[in-house]
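Minutes, project check-in
Item: structure for the 71-residue chain
Input as provided by the requester:
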Amino acid sequence: MKENARQGFWNGATVPLGYRLVEAERRGTKIKKKLDVDPVQAECVRLIYKLYLYGRRHLGSPGHQGGGSSG
């Protein structure tokens, strides 16, 4: 397993959000796979991080007036 990972192959388990599995090579009947960025999911991950870092007001969402707290 360590050598598999050292060579950059995926060892299994759930694929992280923002990635997909792609076939990297075949060794006999075994198919070695690697992670590749999933463009659609990656955009969601970027949005999650932007929301965490800046909140909604910095996204330029329609209908949002910006501004501070009331009171």
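Outcome recorded: Strands lie at 19-27, 30-37.
No further action items on this chain.
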